[in-house]
Amino acid sequence: MKLGVLTVPLSEMPVGQALSYLKGLGAQAVEIGCGGFPGNAHCDPEVLLKDRAKLKEFKETIKASGLEISAFSAHGNAVHPDEETAKKAVRDFENAVYMAEEMEVGVVNTFSGCPGDSEGSRYPNWVTCPWPDDFTKILDYQWNDKLLPYWRKAAEFAGSHGVKVAFEMHPGFCVYNTETMLRIHREIGPALGANYDPSHLFWQGMDGISSIRELAGIIYHVHAKDCKIDAMNTARTGVLDTKPYGDELHRSWIFRTVGYGHDLETWKDIISALRMAGYDGAVSIEHEDSLMSVKEGLEKAVSFLKEVLIEEKPAEMWWA
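Below the sequence we write its predicted structure tokens.
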């Protein structure tokens, strides 16, 4: 496995400087945002795909860094009920696929998206329970009328360019846990898999190891991000928490740098489970810890992951 980092938190640095900094920390791979929620500070496909000279410069910068690109990321909501919002997300996703093809990168990370509850909706509607029956009807509409039709076409598009799509299982979107990830993979096919990020699973009460075993063979990328559950706040209010992320004292859970939500043993188990599930790609640090600066969070995460990553699997056992 390779130690990776999502470069978006370093967006104030020019791409060359960011890559040099990460290489100095010991990173081996980078995940680059090129649209949507991660932004495109280090890679703007709208510019690079239209300017061969700038694209050549970008390629040379990556090559000179000695780092490989594990994935391009464009997290958006391509099935948003607002037409303009959806169009932008679709454009960002397609541009990410074009960039991945150009750079010979096999994976684009994104969200599944979430539609509204009907054709007249203005905002997404994330359903979390089956009753009243209205909610079940909404789910049927979202999956069968919106989500599956879009991703059938999008998966075919990505596949035609040699790219796989990795969904971050994220609450607020239709694919948010192991079960929904398996469903869309089963419905659409091998072009769609998971960008496994245990932080979102932890706060939902899921076991990260069980999820990895269920998703074996369709984990196309991995995020290294942790989550700390506040036992007292959760006991009082539960895990569905809409308070701002910056209100750390009162939230049921917050995102943390790896090692600050779950211990070394837990992360060793996660990495070992990924290995047993056949994953041997990048483990990409996604810094979203609101209690640490970007550099502190990244440096602590790199140091922590160096202790748990398994770099290579032996071709055969010495006693065999």
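The longest strand covers residues 29-36.
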